[in-house]
Amino acid sequence: MWRHKTLNAGVVVLRVRGVRRGADAARYVIHVSGRLKSGGSPVNAAADFQFTLYDAATGGGLVAGPLTVLGVSVADGLFTAQVDFGVSAFNGSARWIEIAVRAPAGSGHSRR
């Protein structure tokens, strides 16, 4: 179950990089890398991530998602996940990604 709670020391560093893949113009893969902490310590277990794309930082409209990526490897707090919201989600306007995390993977505990 995904629970939405404030993440005290959640994703501290976040890097997003988009890459169009091959001849499929409908794909736009986003590589999301970051550092995940729980209770101030780096996470060292697989985690489930849920990504939702909005058009504003607060009170924004939903652009795409949520997309779930299960069993992402997290080592010393570092993770990388790939998500594909589709190329139509990116029209030149600013976008914000909300990330919900369930750690360890498959558990009922989650943070946002």
Mean pLDDT: 77
Report the C-alpha radius of gyration, rounded.
Answer: 14 Å
Helix/strand order, N-terminal first: EEEEEEEE
Assembly status: single chain
CATH architecture: Sandwich
In DSSP terms (H or I, runs of 4 or more residues), the helix count works out at: 0
Query: How much of the polypeptide forms β-strand, as a percent range?
Result: over 45%
Number of domains: 1
Q: State the total count of DSSP E strands.
A: 8
CATH topology: Immunoglobulin-like
Assigned CATH class: Mainly Beta
Largest sheet: 4 strands, antiparallel
User: Helix- and strand-based class?
Assistant: mainly beta
How would you summarize the topology of this molecule?
Blueprint: E1 11-19, E2 29-38, E3 41-42, E4 47-54, E5 62-72, E6 78-84, E7 96-102, E8 110-111
Antiparallel strand pairs: 1-2, 2-3, 2-6, 4-5, 4-7, 7-8
